[in-house]
Amino acid sequence: MQLDRAGAGALVTILGIVLDNIHTAESEGYRSNWNVEHVLDLDTRFHHVWPELTDSLMGFGGGDPRADDRREMELHIEDAELLLAGMAFTEMASTDLPFFEMVQWTSEFVASELRQLWSDDVWRERAGVKDNRRW
Question: Contact, 109 vs 11, CB < 8 A?
């Protein structure tokens, strides 16, 4: 998959929100349903491809965030599923915030980008859907 730094930064931000949820769950004495190893592995792979990403807002490091700096990153369908679940979690956690519509728009855009990497048949199979309903 080809991503620019802004796209990678947005996805790393989603992973950061998921990690925050994991830490919150642990500090409050319950176990989260996230696969911690998968989240950390994906975060590490993003940082390997974009070492300039930081924990700052939207994951931007130095340089011009508008620069056309597209890089190739291998993304598995399990990674896309994790990111989609993380975006859904972020969207639900943002419903009372003033920028909820922006979170919603971003989630829909990223979901459409991720979903087009695999056919509808593959997504249906992963979801256990047996008929030809459209998403």
Answer: no
More confident residue, 5 or 60: 5
Return the closest-CA partner of residue 70 out of 26, 4, 119: 4
Phi, psi of 30 (to 5 degrees): -130, 165
Residue 113 has pLDDT above 90, yes or no: no
In a domain, 10, yes or no: yes
Examine residue 135 and state whether it is found in any structural domain, yes or no. no
75: three-class secondary structure by DSSP: coil
Q: Extract the runs of DSSP E, i.e. beta strands, from 4-101.
A: 71-72
Range of the domain at 7: 2-127
pTM equals: 0.81
Tokens standing for 90?
Answer: 């972020």
Tokens of 26: 């642990």
Residue type at 34 in one-letter notation = W
Asked, for residue 132, whether it belongs to a domain, the answer is no
CB 91 within 8 A of CB 103: yes
Number of structural domains in the chain = 1
